[in-house]
Each structure stands twice: as structure tokens, then as C-alpha cells.
């Protein structure tokens, strides 16, 4: 005997069975509970996105429209011209600077060098502190940890003196090498390595894995989310560097993005070519955005895994 079909009310509409109707009402009530949270999130997104949109509109307008305060909230017809000036020429009506293509390549080299260098040094130092039993490993860790109390700005003069004595001024090595030491990365890797069970270490020893083999084949695969999260943070850190590149570089060919944009702005508003500067700023946002979007899943896992 076939099961009865959906009931129909006197007006001809289909009436759901009682269990399905109750489940539908429960889902509707559950969805409505999240409406205030979603509204708050949308307001936050609008708050952060609107200035970026205004910068984009300014990058498509001409200079008199921006400086006179009559700029509309719709894109203008000068986008191709302004972005060409920013990316290729590096010049505008009132400024002459480094093309963003060159500055972005310099910043990309610094960001990748700093991120990869810090991860490599932090990984090796944490590996030695956790898995090697030597006499001064606890004091060595605390000495590394104490360097967190000394930011770059505090040790900038002796660091510059050392770099100058080694002939690293206005070189990519001088831009990258002094920024590659990271106590934060060492601390994060140490805390993760302490959670590795002893049984895993013993199994690797029984299989005949040496120290380097254990590091490469066991520790690196299980710590890939930590590496990914740290890479995103350090890439943005290297991309946004300003003070050290400003001191260590002496030629336009080595200028990074932040320094180039700062020099475009200058000191007087009368000499500022805002459409070209806004185009340069938006171009500078692209590489960090691509890195964050591409590594979002690993980045979130690296920050939220409970064993850390």
C-alpha cells in the first residue's frame, strides 16, 4: 500500500507533514538567530572596504577632481592612464618616483627572503632546543626569547654599523639578512615540537632515521600548518618593512613599496599626485592579498589547532 502524499489545505496549497513542518520551523528559527551577527559582520566589512573603494575611485579620476573635493563615488575614465603611470612610469603630473613594478619586485624579494629565512632559522633552532640534549639548551632558549624585548628600532644603529662594515649597504643581502632572525618563530615551533609524542621519535629511531631524516620526513609534514601560518604573517611583515629599507638602501633601484609610496607623498600637499599614489597603494595591496587568499585554509588551521 503506497504512503499518503502531501496533504492539501482547502485553498489548494500543499501542506507538509507535521515532522517536516516542525523541522522547517526549527531551521528557520535557527537561521534567524544568526541574522544580528551577520548584520554586524556586514557592517564591519563595509567599514573596512569603503576606504579601499574610495582609494580605487580616486585612482581612476584626474588630479583636479580629487584635489577640488568634487570626486564622485563612481569610477572615472582615467584608470588606465593612472595605473600605467604608477606601475610602469613611476611619474605623474607632480611627482617622479620608482615604478611600482620595480618597487614591488624589491618588496617581493624582501618578503620572500625574510619569511623563508625566518622559518628556516626558527625551525632549526627550535629543533635543536627540543630534540637535542646539550648542556646549555635551556639558557640558549631563554636568550633567544629575550630578544623579543629588543625590537628592530632599538638595535637599528648597531645593526646598520655591522651591515656597513660587512659591505651590505644597498644590497639585497643587507635588506634581508638582518631581518631573518625571529624569536617568535622559534617559540612557536618549540611549543609545537613539545607536543610531538615520544613514541613517534622512538619509531623514527627504530626505522634508522637520523636527525636530518627525522626533521625532513617526520617533523616537517606534521608541522606544515604551523609553517603556513607563520609564512603568511612573516610575508606581510617583510612586505610592510619601512625603517630598515629606508636606512640600508641608497639607490632608487633598491627601494621597496612602502618607501616608494612615502616618497611619492612627500612633505607638501601641493606636490601630491593623489590618483597615481592611490593606484600605487592599490597595486601594493595585491601580493599580500593573493598570499592570504591562497593560504587561507592552512593559515586558519595553523592558528586554531588545539595542540598548539
Structure characterization notes:
- By secondary structure, the protein is mainly alpha-helical.
- It has 2 domains: 35-89; 100-304, MetI-like fold (Orthogonal Bundle).
- The chain contains 16 helices and 2 strands.
- Strands 1-2 form a two-stranded antiparallel sheet.
- It is flat.
**Topology pattern, helix = H, strand = E:** EEHHHHHHHHHHHHHHHH
Number of DSSP helical runs: 16
The portion of residues forming beta strands comes to: under 5%
Globular, elongated, flat, extended or rod-shaped: what is the shape?
A: flat
How many strands appear in the DSSP assignment? 2
Would you give the CATH topology of the largest domain? MetI-like fold
SS content category: mainly alpha
Spatial order of the strands forming the largest sheet: 1-2
Show the helix and strand layout.
Blueprint lengths: L6 E2 L5 E2 L2 H16 L1 H25 L3 H5 L11 H11 L10 H32 L5 H10 L9 H10 L6 H5 L6 H11 L4 H9 L4 H12 L1 H16 L3 H6 L8 H9 L8 H21 L1 H9 L4
Antiparallel strand pairs: 1-2
Can you give me a brief rundown of this structure?
The chain is mainly α and 308 residues long. Helix content is 67%, strand content 1%. Strands 1-2 form a two-stranded antiparallel sheet.
List keywords for this structure.
MetI-like fold, two-stranded antiparallel sheet, 2 domains, mainly alpha, about 300 residues, flat, single chain
